[in-house]
Amino acid sequence: MSTLQSLFILLLVAYMGGFLMGGRALRGRGLPSGSEWLLLGLAAGPSALGLVSGSEVAFFAPLALLATGWIALLVGLTFGVDGARHIGAGGMALGVAAGILSFVAVGGAAWVVLDRVPSAGALFPDAGQRVAVALSLGASLADTSRHVARWGSERLGGRGPLLDRVSDVTRSDDLVPILALGLLVSLDTARGMDPLPLGGLGLGTLLGLAGAALLGRTLRVAAFWSLLFGLSLLATGTAERLDLSVLATGFALGLALAVASPLRNSAREMAVGVEGAVILPALFLAGTRVVPVNGPALWIAAAVILARLGAALLVAALVAAADPRARRGGPWLALAFLPTGPLGIAIALSVNLRSPGPVGDLVLATTVAAAVAGEFLGPPALRRALSRAGELPA
Amino acid sequence: MSAPPAKGPVTRLLELASLVGLFGLMLGVDRLVGPAGGPWQRTGRDLAAIGFFLLAGTLASSLLEVLRLPHLTGFLLAGIVAGPYVLHAVDHETVADLAIVNSLALSLIALAGGAELRMEAVRRGFRSLLAATVVQNGLALVVIPATFFLARDLVPFTQGMSLPAVFAVAMLWGVVSITRSPSAVMGILSQTRPAGRLTDFTVGFVMTSDVVVVVLLALVMTAVRPLLDPGATLSLAAFAELGHELLGSVAIGTTLGLLLVAYLRFVGRQILLVLLLLGLVVVEVITYLRFEWLLTFLTAGFVVQNFSRQGEKLLHAIEHTGEVVYVIFFATAGAHLDLPLLGKLWPAALLFFGVRAATAVAGARLSARLAGDPPALRNWGWAGLVSQAGLALGIAARMQGQFPTFGAQFGALAVAAVALNELFGPVLLKFALDRSGESGRGATGEGAT
Fold it and tell me: Which of A36, A390, B27, B386 could serve as a FRET partner for B56 with CA atoms 20 to 30 Å apart?
């Protein structure tokens, strides 16, 4: 397939994304986070059918990078809010705690396997690589897909405290993986650049504040898009040049814009309106880059996915402890916290783009496997939990 | 819907500070990164440059509003200042990488241009258009080659050529000089949202002029080739090929237009992505089939506007997409402008710029008198015909392939002359639209939403 045909397919995926995830409501088709597009990308990619060749995958790398930055910007722009509802300090703390729990559990599991299973450890003999693998896996699987909660409310019509707590967690836990990745990237000097700890957050904040000031108080549609696209591209490109985390930069940009701009609600609404057209192609591109793991790497992948499951159980327990009303969801609630969404994939994709080779391949393949498993198990579990809690319409 | 409030001095200062900050950021990062290489650096540079052009172009155009200069000039200036010939905030390699935006922008421009050609207005102004097409092109093809021939001492590459050969090159220069800039016209229109006879005439003339130029180019090249290449004979095969290309392009454009009508009528969503598909993929397919994609898109836009009720919807969608794409397109064009070359060839470039503009003014007066046009056209009909951009450079590039002995120098002179036309043309058109009272008459008030 030529690059032109690949571009055509990518635009087609974006087109479908615009339909399936456009506007404020997730439509009644497809999986909540669009993980089927990961599988489609995997099937079309060089590892399976080869419809998209290796050189085309490389050709689209800048688009993949851009998509990760845009996803992070959207996450930052909508951080701490669930539609019109603002998540309180308690909800945020719960989300951050859940994120830390998942990060530690997954990263710890990866580290233990690398340290204790000789064949797995032999894949990454360098200590620095092991740290990178463990931290990257921890970061990419620390996030719970916010689309699952949206799916619960928008497609199932759920309403109630249990769904609110799920939403609180899924909309606040993003902070942990983004900070972790930001720190990891800014301290890594493999590209020959000086370390600049959390420089991405600084750059994003600066650009976000400037953007808020320039947006002013009156929304001009054309100026808004020029500004938002321009800031996003500049932030992504500059972060890449300075060897900073594109995700941390994008997140900080979105967050600073949301905090400082009086037009935050319109900005959120407009930006979220185009998320499908970005997220689905990003998932498709991530799928094309997957190189299936085999041999001893499977131990790492399996351990990490199990750790993610264990973390979901702990998060559910934490939520139930924080809000007794959430207990009405029963044991199904645990599985509802299993799906990792587009942000997790974006983190894995970012690692894959940054560290092509064994580290990037393992992180992306494992995250994709966990995302697909979570996507098939999580939503039905959430439906049952909501049904048990009486939060679904009759 | 009310118009957005005017920007105060604080906002202007903030914009100026942000613009300076942007330049500082780009240059600072360059200094900080130094010679660090690798594909990731190139990717980062390209993405940052697009973002920079978008932001810097938007800010510069907003600041130039104070001087009543068109936004397009702001986009161009941002590109020139940031480009490889001034501050070098964006380098040659990056500017070349951004060429991918060109086909997207030009396809939108052609679609919008076709959609702006309303049958009613064309019919009403047909006499003016016909008179102007004949007079403007006829006059230019006499006056400009004559000037070139007489001023051949200012053109270094004609030294040592025989007089018939100089005449042939002068005729080719004449064809380059009758090209106009649909992109500049559409850029100004999207800012000023005008309506009236001058607007209809300018759009009609500029959009159809591409077809006229393509035909005349084939004609002149066939006629003068024996003067430049003694071994060549007069061959009419080029015309058969040209006919095939033009008719095929119109046929494909009609089909594309009807498909667009059906899409807009029955689906009507995600138009942005459809436009991207057209600009990035369909353009390549049409080029591969060896048809003229600008004419194809022009026809498609015309069909949508005049054979359905979807024209306004299409224009609206293009306007939204274009406002972002045009900034990058013109800023990149600005960065492309070879200032050192202009510095070297400025006497010849300035002469040809002046004569071309004067010919346009004289042609407009004459054709307006012949057609009995209203004062707006008589006084300002020439203003939209000064801008030049892509097509002129495209023809110049084609000359390099066709006539290797002088093509490169010919191209350099074209770049220098186009630079002046590109800088001053949009300013003149905006001034004309403002003075004739047509600016803002076509506004929908959407700009404030």
Answer: B386
